[in-house]
Amino acid sequence: MGCCFSSEEDTDGQRQASERDPLLGGSSAPIANGQRPVDDAHNHSSGPISRTDEQSLLSRILHQTAHKVIDVSSTEPHSIERTEYMERSRQYMSKLSAVNSSTLHSPTDLPNGVKVPQSVLASDPIPQGDIAFAIQAAKGADASLSGFHVEHRDELVVQFESSS
Amino acid sequence: MAEGIHHYFEELVAKHEGILAILVTDRDGVPLVKVADPKVPQNALRASFLSTFSTTAEQASKLGLSKNKSIVCFFASYQVVHFSFLPLVVSIIATSQANTGLLLGLEKEFEETVKAVKVVVDGV
User: Which segments does the entry list as coiled coil (chain B) (predicted)?
Assistant: First the structure.
């Protein structure tokens, strides 16, 4: 729209050409809010091309807003036609045959996190003493936690006196 | 070769306890790969159910937490994990007892395969 404004000083033919440029070129520069009233005023004095300009500006703003807004109503599932479903399904089946077999990675035998089982299996077993210690520590922690209790001393809700 | 992909996902289902079905669909829920145990509820395999993820993920990506990658849904007896490989979506349907972390970790495993499928079906 900056181009649109600057074209006021140009001749008519040039102005029309420059007005079209940003639209066709798809200029993605954001439009400053302060510029809009000036543009509007200018557009009112121009012909139908300016109106198209304004329309495209408004539709662009609408599009940007729609893109940013979280629209709950659009989360409704849209069902596709049965014929389209079958047609697309058939197309996918034929396309899938083109997948290169070398790209298929065979699933690993063990789930993630157990990638090197031999090192885990070959390590020394945990000594009985350590296990007994862990059990004793756990029992101690359990006994300590069970002894926890809240001692009620003050009021939980404190009333503040009004200053007036 | 379509059988190869089918077999790959069949192996994944067989190897992991609790997984009932794995589906690779497009954003409208049309399946490209469908591996399902007879025990899986039929409603969970419907396109209208599977397509909700793509629309929901689209809206969830606007929360300011960058792009949504996956959504986990828990039900009384089942859990469903959706992975976004837009325009493709991978949905895993499992029992509620299945290890959710393991299901989420599966993404790394089938990522390359799904990407290969994505390249092939691009433009349909």
Answer: none
Asked if residues B59 and B76 have their Cβ atoms less than 8 Å apart, the reply is no
Omega cis (within 30) before A22: no
Interface residue A111 vs chain B (CB under 8 A): yes
- Residue A98 has a CB neighbour count (10 Å cut-off) of 13
* Residues 6 or more apart whose Cβ sits within 8 Å of residue B115: B85
Look up residue B1 and give its DSSP letter: -
* Crossing angle for the helix pair A48-68 and A36-45, to the nearest 10 degrees: 150
Q: Is the ipTM of this complex over 0.90?
A: no
Q: A111–B59: do the CB atoms touch at under 8 Å?
A: no
Q: Which of B46, B1, B3 is nearest to B21 (CA)?
A: B46
Task: At A11, give phi and psi (nearest 5°).
Answer: -75, 170
Q: Which uninterrupted H or E stretch holds A148?
A: none
- Which chain A residues in 33-92 lie under 8 Å from chain B, judged by CB atoms? 68-72, 74-80, 85, 88-89, 91-92
Mutate which of A68, A87, A95 to test chain B, going by most B C-beta atoms within 10 A? A95
Q: What is the dihedral of CA B83, B84, B89, B90, to 10 degrees?
A: -20
H/E element, A20: helix A12-25
> B26: which strand partners?
B88
Structure token digits, residue B66 = 């960058």
Radius of gyration of chain A (CA): 36
Whether residue B2 and residue A93 make contact (CB cut-off 8 A), yes or no, is: yes
Identify the three-state secondary structure at position B76: coil
